[in-house]
Amino acid sequence: MKEKWREPMAMVRIRRGSAADAAFVREVAEQVFGELGDYGRILPTWLVHDGVLTHLAEEEGVAVGYTMLGFYSAGPTRPNEYVADLLAIAVAPRAQGRGVGKQLLDHAIGQAALARRRMPVAELRLSVAEPNGRARRLFEQFGFQFVDGEHGRYDGGQRALHMARPVKP
User: 141: phi > 0 → left, psi -120 to 50 → alpha, else beta; which?
Assistant: First the structure.
């Protein structure tokens, strides 16, 4: 049986994002999320939002992916808890398939755990488009489980699925 050749795992450095990263965030959002809606316009505004923690993955100083993590109250039934929401995780097409997404997701999970030291963050949530099987499998590998219910649709018409996992200290 012939083995499929794989590129080696990417060696990335993850750093905090800033307003200077807006063009990269816009470009990758258009490439990765374009079929879902106008995220090329939306995500750069989240980059500078006080409630959103953005991190970029770089290879040899060149940005290859990012995460955006928001924090908010868990709601009226759980007034003393917070939720971390993985608002976006994206890897530039040129860097996909080499583990950048896994490293970014692991980092985001770690950031939620760090936040738990300062405030009662109970879980990490995310939304994923139903047709995106690759992302759904990645999230499942990291312990995310599907949340029952109807969660709406993306602007492109795809059904939105919600997934969550507990945040461990």
Answer: alpha
Report the 10 Å Cβ neighbour count for 69.
Answer: 23
Please report, for the domain that includes residue 63, its CATH number.
3.40.630.30
Q: Quickly list H helices, 19-119.
A: 22-33, 39-47, 100-116
Nearest to 124 by CA among 111, 135, 136: 111
**Chain CA centroid to CA 98, Å:** 16
Instruction: Quick: pLDDT tens for 121-148.
Output: 999 999 999 999 999 999 999 999 999 9
Q: Which residues contact 116 (CB under 8 A, 6 or more apart)?
A: 167, 168, 169
Q: What are the φ/ψ torsions at residue 63 (nearest 5 degrees)?
A: -65, 135
pTM for this structure? 0.91
Question: Do the domain assignments include residue 158?
Answer: yes
